[in-house]
Sequence to fold (381 residues):
Amino acid sequence: MAGPLIAIFAGEPSGDLHAAALIRELKKRLPGLATFGYGGPKMAEAGLELTEDLASDAIMGVFPVLAAAPRLLKTYRTARDLLQQRRPSLAVFVDYPGLNLRLAAAAKSMGIRTVGYIAPQVWAWGPWRTRRVARVLDRLLTILPFEAPYFEKAGLATTFTGHPMTDHVTAQVPDSDFIARLQSNGASPRIGVFPGSRPHVIRSLGPVLAGSLARLRDHHGITGGSLIVALAHPTHEAIAREAFNEHRHIEFTCGRATDVIRASDICLATSGTVTLEIAMIGRPFVIAYRVSPLMNAVGRCILTVPHVGLVNLVAGRSIVPEHIGSGGLEGPIAADLARLWTDPNAMQTQIEGLSEVRAKLHAPGAYARAADAVIAELNSR
Fold:
C-alpha cells in the first residue's frame, strides 16, 4: 500500500546523521513511506531518494558559501522544482538554515506544510532572523532545552524533542579491539583530535591544532604523547596529513569518532556537534575554532551569548575552555591542554561539569519523539 510522500533536506554530516535516524523512525510508523531530498550517504542508506549529496562536502562560512553560490543556487532550484512537481505531504528541513530556510519559504508558498528539525542558532548570532524562521516553518522541533520558549515567543509552534546525542552514543557499540589497539600503540597522553567535518575547516584549523600540540610538546614538556586524528570522510586524510606532517606517533581514522573519544585521555576539538559527543562520553577537552579576521570582528559585534561551545551553552557557564579567533590561538590552547593533563583538580572539575551537561541532555528516544511530532504535523493536514 502506498504511503505518504515526505521531502527531507539536510546539508552537512551532522544533519545527515540526524535525518537518517529520523527517516528510520518514520518508516517504523508509516508503512509505505517514500522520501526524497538532498542530504548525504547516511540518509540514502536509510531509504531517502537522494537528489544531491551535500553532506560529503559540506559548505559553511561566508567566503566558502560565496564561492559555492552557483552550486547552491542550482541545488535550491532543483529542490524547489521537485517540490512543485511531486507535491509531498510534508517537507522537513534539518538544520542547514542558509539554504533550508529559503527552500522552506518556497515550500510554504506552494501550500506544503513545513517542519524544521534542529533550530538555527539565531538566538546566538541573529535574533532578528527569528521572525523569518517563524514565517517559513509551521512547526519547529528543538533539541536544546532553552530553545522552545525562545521560538514560541515569536509565535512559532515548537516541540522540544530532546537532544539525540544520547541515542547516537548509545547506538555506537564500542569496538573494544579497535580501542585497545589505539591505546596500546602510543604513550600517554593519548590525545583525540577532531579537526572538523568540512574540508575548508580542516585546511584552516588543522595547522592551528597541529601548532598547539607542538607547543604542548616543546613548551610544556609533554613529549611522550600520541595523537589520534578522527576524520569524517576518507578524502579528508590528505588535508589532515599536510597539517600534522611534523608529528610522530600519530594515527588517522575515519568514521570512528566515538571509539577515538573512548580511546583518548584528553581531546582537542573544533566547535560543533562532536563536542557534545565528547561530553556524553566524559573525556576532558578543549574547543578551538579559527575564523578570518573579518568574521572575528563581526562575530564579536553580533554574538548575543557568552559562549560559543554547545557544552558551555547547555551548562550555562564555562566548563570547557574555548579558543575562537583569527590568530594567536596555539599558545593558549596548549596551556589549557597542559593544565588539564597535569592538574588533577582541573581535570576533575571539568569531568564533574560534563556530568551535569549529560544529565541535562539525557533524553533517550529523542529521534522517536521527533518522528511522532512529524507525524502529528502530517496528520494535522
Residues 170-361 form a domain with the Rossmann fold fold (CATH 3.40.50.12580). The first strand starts at residue 5 and ends at 9. The mean pLDDT is 89. The chain has two domains: 5-164+363-379, 170-361.
